[in-house]
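Students often ask what a holo structure prediction actually looks like on paper. The answer is less mysterious than it sounds. You provide the chain, you provide the ligand, and the output is a string of discrete structure tokens encoding the 3D arrangement of the protein together with guanine.
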Amino acid sequence: MRILDGKKLSEKIKNKVKEEVDKLKKEGITPGLAVILVGNDPASQTYVKMKKGACEKVGMYSVVHEFPESISEKELLTTIEMINKNPNLHGLLVQLPLPKHIDTTKVLEAVAPEKDVDGFHPYNMGKLFEGLESFAPCTPLGVMELFKEYNINLKGKDICIVGASNIVGKPMLSLLLNAWATVDICHIETKDLATHTKRADIVIVGVGKPNLITADMVKEGAIVVDIGINKVDGKIVGDVDFENVSKKAAYITPVPGGTGPMTIAMLLKNTIKATKLQKENK
Ligand code: GUN
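The corresponding structure tokens follow.
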């Protein structure tokens, strides 16, 4: 069994990003990221703090707009409009989830597609689905980088994705399809999950259920990617029974230290991409 070491790879990527930041700074451009955080969900607060810290570490400019839960949709849209127009902010992300009284689709659609470093705008989602150049969501993008780093060939592989969210499962499906894998996508209504996971060369899971994937659900020599983040007895665990599944798997991501740090590294990479795109289109 080999560990797919997201922590190590993310450090390597962040060093490369830092070099890019230094180069852009010499040209008088400091890549800038704006993050919008609404309400006081502790997980969201932690993620935003990590994103800001990562920007600072590579020398990017970052600004967090924090709003109370009670903010109106209109006020939020006005802030997005302001950031869209600010030439010093090249990337913009709205931390999800948003409060119930706010229409998430409307908010995500307000983000300028060229600043959409999360890849959640339908324009970028559509382009990704078509296999065209776009901003792809950071978590699935990070999984693809792990496959590349460990020379895992995806062509013709049977891949089972567990979880069909807009943030992870659906964009993951597009990226894998674009790489010519055969993809099976399971979700809450799937009749017999194990039937699907057992026949897969690669299992990718991100639903937020500890121990959902057990050793009897994966085949010998499978590659297992865990995107879940759960707190159990004060400890962070994924969706995979790591102890037992790792005895069977050829490769596996740990939690923490697997896909999590890769998500942040991809956000930085997307921000560089946005900065360069806006520089060219000036
Ligand atoms: N909430 C959970 N994951 C994410 C993410 O990757 N980006 C944003 N903006 N919100 C999230």
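The domain at 138-260 is CATH 3.40.50.720 (Rossmann fold).
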